[in-house]
Write a structure and sequence with these properties.
By secondary structure, the chain is mainly alpha-helical. The chain has helices at residues 16-34, 49-73, 78-95; strands at residues 37-38, 41-42. The longest helix is centred in the middle third of the chain and has 25 residues, at 49-73.
């Protein structure tokens, strides 16, 4: 596992375990919303935890981006950060 100060600033490496956590979160939310009752018991009452997992993953990934930029440039601009996010997210928002 890489330490925070060893993060590659040019491109952050792919983390398969993050996708695994996302899959667990998605499955838990889907099962929660399916309201499956087996043998008179609701088995998936904790699906809301999937949402919490998404928030933790987002916080981790955003922090990783911020630390990477701080290491590479010595400073961080929230304006540039949100501009990059808007350029990535807004086009698809308008398409949908």
């Amino acid at each position: 596992m890489k330490r925070v100060n060893q993060v590659n600033s040019s491109k952050l490496s792919y983390r398969a375990e993050i996708d695994g956590l996302r899959a667990i979160a998605v499955i838990s939310v889907i099962l929660y919303h399916s309201q499956m009752v087996l043998f008179g018991r609701d088995w998936f009452k904790g699906g809301f935890i999937g949402v919490d997992i998404f928030f933790v993953i987002s916080g981790y990934l955003i922090t990783r981006i911020i630390l990477s930029e701080l290491q590479a440039k010595g400073s961080f601009s929230f304006l540039n950060f949100y501009e990059r996010r808007a350029r990535r997210i807004l086009p698809m928002l308008f398409v949908v």
